[in-house]
Design a protein that fits this description.
Blueprint: H1 4-16, E1 26-29, E2 41-44, E3 54-55, H2 57-61, E4 71-74, E5 84-89, E6 92-96, E7 107-108, E8 112-113, E9 118-123, E10 130-134, E11 143-146, E12 150-153, E13 161-170, E14 173-174, E15 178-183, E16 198-199, E17 204-207, E18 216-220, E19 229-232, E20 236-239, E21 247-256, E22 259-260, E23 264-269, E24 279-280, E25 283-288, E26 295-298, E27 305-306, H3 326-336, H4 343-348, H5 363-371, E28 382-388, E29 393-398, E30 404-408, E31 413-414, E32 418-420
Parallel strand pairs: 1-2, 3-4
Antiparallel strand pairs: 4-5, 5-6, 7-9, 8-9, 9-12, 10-11, 10-13, 13-14, 13-15, 16-17, 17-20, 18-19, 18-21, 21-22, 21-23, 24-25, 25-26, 26-32, 27-31, 28-29, 29-30
Length: 421
């Protein structure tokens, strides 16, 4: 039996909520209408709304073990501090953004520079679900760094200012760009360490060690950095056209965008005797025989361009291609073809170094010159030899590529004089 007190409570509940019309459905209204058949709870008013539980961001997050689908109105969860609906889904609170607000741009943080790297930092943006970072102002090609407000960039150059770009994003889109700027640390490189020099009788090749942070090296004959030669990343410097048994000296500096090191002294002594590349008796040695006392010298510059013989000059019998036959070949040519403009006659008349025994090299002698072309400036293009191929052509060689060929005798090609010693 229902007691009088329980009856009064039940009657009071019915008065307060007159629209509850069944136990399987609940209708809350002012007109006593039945709830819609599709609704478990049907709230209907013409002058009132539905208010879910209202709480702050911290209060919402303090709910213990929220159930999947739990909904509240968060009073300060919007980007501008205003409220919005929140629903607990998939193990975390998610905001219902009816106008789908994109995050504001991040603001620059305190970057951490090093010599060759920078850790870029920015301040988190409200309602951002992640960030993108780029070296150029282009969101589409930017690197997604996830939720971390930081990104470390390596492989940079010392003492250099860099500008980078960051965006915040969420499901609604991305923010405007945040521009970051930072310079790497300003540290000049240390001095190189001199290595062992390589020497012949005619040149010295100085060596030194690579230096951390250096972007290049300069070397010179004296300790004046301003007048030194920039070698880029090369770790050697060559002093050519040296004298045998002589000490040579130089200096090298390491540099980067911050400055340069103190100079490192270099030294080396050339070998005694004769060697390839030595300036000797009016020219430069390009071949030594087995004794090391005899060989071939070439003039240090071309004698111009010329033909081997005029058209219809006929054959020159008895020429050879072998080493040691250039002089005899030249004598054979000028005994038959006396035109002073021929290649052979140009060499025969040359008196470089006050020597008068210059000649046009044979085919094999010309190839020896090609093999030592690094000791000669401006040695390139097609050159005549004194070796006849047939009645109408003679052997030539491209001293740029090494290719040998037989060429029509009245073609115009380069001439380089040679003499034996």
């Amino acid at each position: 039996m229902i007691t009088i007190l329980r009856l009064f409570v039940l009657l009071g509940f019915i008065v307060v909520i007159p629209g509850i019309s069944s136990f399987s459905q609940v209708g809350i209204n002012s007109d006593k209408s039945a709830p819609d058949p599709s609704a478990g709870l049907d709230v209907k008013f013409s002058d009132k709304g539905f208010l879910p539980p209202r709480m702050t961001f911290d209060e919402r997050n303090a709910i213990v073990s929220p159930h999947e689908g739990l909904m509240v109105y968060c009073t300060n969860c919007n980007t501008d501090g205003t409220g919005l609906l929140s629903i607990y889904q998939g193990g975390k609170w998610k905001n219902i953004l009816l106008d789908c607000t994109t995050p504001a741009p991040p603001t620059p943080g305190t970057n951490i520079p090093d010599t060759t790297k920078i850790t870029w930092n920015w301040n988190p943006a409200w309602i951002a679900s992640g960030y993108k970072w780029n070296t150029v102002d282009d969101y589409s090609s930017a690197t997604n760094v996830g939720t971390s407000p930081s990104h470390t960039e390596t492989g940079l150059t010392v003492c250099t200012t860099y500008t980078r770009y960051v965006w915040a994003y969420n499901v609604c889109g991305h923010s405007n760009v945040c521009i970051l700027s930072q310079a790497t640390l300003q540290i000049a490189p240390s001095s190189p360490i001199a290595g062992t020099s390589d020497a012949t009788c005619s040149q010295i090749v100085f060596h030194w060690s690579a230096v951390p942070l250096a972007t290049g090296y300069k070397a010179g004959q004296n300790s004046d950095y301003a007048s030194a030669f920039d070698l880029g990343n090369v770790l050697t410097a060559t002093a050519p056209n040296c004298t045998p048994s002589t000490w040579y000296y130089g200096y090298v500096w390491a540099y980067n965008d911050c400055g340069h090191s103190a100079p490192t002294a270099l030294s080396g002594q050339t070998l005694p005797g004769l060697c390839i590349g030595l300036d000797y008796q009016g020219g430069r040695i390009f071949y030594l025989d087995g004794t090391g006392l005899h060989g071939l010298i070439a003039s240090t510059s071309d004698l111009g361009n010329s033909f081997w013989s005029p058209p219809f000059s006929g054959p020159v019998p008895g020429t050879s291609t072998a080493i040691g036959t250039g002089q005899a070949n030249t004598n054979a040519i000028i005994s038959i073809i006396t035109d002073p403009a021929t290649a052979a006659m140009s060499c025969h008349n040359y008196t470089g170094g006050s020597y008068s025994d210059w000649f046009l090299p044979s085919k094999d002698e010309l190839n020896l010159l090609y093999l030592q072309k690094s000791f000669f400036d401006g040695l390139g293009g097609i050159y005549w030899s004194s070796s006849q191929y047939d009645d109408n052509t003679a052997w030539t060689q491209d001293l740029s590529t090494g290719a040998q060929n037989h060429t029509t005798k009245y073609d115009i090609d380069h001439v380089r004089a040679v003499r034996a010693f």
